[in-house]
Amino acid sequence: MPDNDRFILWSLFTEIVSAFDINPEEYIDDFNKKYEAVSNESYNIKKRAIKELANSIVKQRKIVKASNERKKEEIERAGIKTIRFPSLSLEAQPDIAAVIPTSLGFISLIKPEVVVRKCRYCGREFIGLSDDTISSLMQITPIPVDYYYACDECVRTHFGYPPPDILFADVSSAPGAISPAAAKYLRLVVRTLKRAKRKDMRERKEGK
Ligand SMILES: [Zn+2]
Q1: How far is the CA of 191 from the centre of ligand 1 (A)?
Q2: How far is the centre of ligand 1, averaged over its atoms, from the C-alpha of 89 (Å)?
Q3: Could you read off the pLDDT of 141-175 as tens digits, one per residue?
Q4: Terminal C-alpha separation, the chain
Q5: What's CA 179's distance to the chain center, in Å?
Q6: How far is the CA of 201 from the centre of ligand 1 (A)?
Q7: Region 78-87: what's the mean pLDDT?
Q8: Separation of CA 41 and ligand 1 centre (Å)
Q9: Helix (H) or strand (E) holding 115
Q10: pLDDT level of residue 119 (50, 70, 90 thresholds)
Q11: 117 CA to middle of ligand 1, Å?
């Protein structure tokens, strides 16, 4: 006499695990063992036992998958850390993982603009980025906001980073480290800042 319950419950088992991209055949031994243990029970008890087995397999798979993904992320982060900033000395290399834009989809990146700022640390005037530009940058890089309010000398002493026009030039050319959109925006920031600094220097020389 064919075992109808077994057939139905194997279908149920297959349906549950297949929904999570698990091949039921891989677990046929577990299924058989579980089914044998309850084969003399009522259909409902057998069904509950098989459902429990399927759910525990799915749960186990999810845990393994999450752990694999975490490991992959760690490896990727470690890989990024090995990128070096050519414009900086070896001792001055920042923790690249803290500098690389996360590029998790930007909300709005406004056209970069510069303003004359007073350094928060030494009080000197310097060419800095506008508040809106800083907001845009904060969407794509985890650099602390205070960094943008420090002059070119103070960014090095207080943050260990070079000024934005050097830092972002390095970051935007680090191969494969950031999304093309983030790199493009950083290059635009670099160009805008460099141009403004050159103009400022020229004007100072001319004694304006
Ligand atoms: Zn300063």
Answers
A1: 22
A2: 21
A3: 778 889 999 999 999 998 888 899 998 988 887 76
A4: 103
A5: 11
A6: 17
A7: 53
A8: 80
A9: strand 114-118
A10: very high
A11: 10
Output the CA 61–ligand 1 centroid distance in Å: 54
Residue 29: both structure tokens together: 């031994």
**Domain ranges for the chain:** 4-81, 96-205
Supply 30's token pair: 């577990």
For residue 9, with 0-12 CB atoms within 10 Å meaning exposed, 13-18 middle and 19 or more buried, which class applies?
buried
Give the Å distance between the CA of 126 and the centre of ligand 1.
Answer: 8
Query: Residues 131, 132, 138, 143: what is their CA dihedral angle, to the nearest 10 degrees?
Result: -30
Q: Is the pTM of this model over 0.70?
A: no
Ion ligand 1 residue ranges (Cβ < 5 Å):
119, 121-122, 151, 154
The residue whose two tokens read 């549950």 is 16
Alpha helices in the chain (DSSP H): 4-18, 28-38, 43-81, 96-99, 131-140, 152-159, 164-173, 180-205
Ligand 1 centre to CA of 93 (Å) is 21
How many angstroms does the Cα of residue 187 sit away from the middle of ligand 1? 24
When mean pLDDT is compared across 13-17, 137-141, 160-164, the lowest value belongs to 137-141
Two structure tokens written together for 130: 């506008």
- pLDDT tens by residue, 44-71: 999 999 999 999 999 988 888 887 777 7
What amino acid is encoded at 166 in this protein?
I
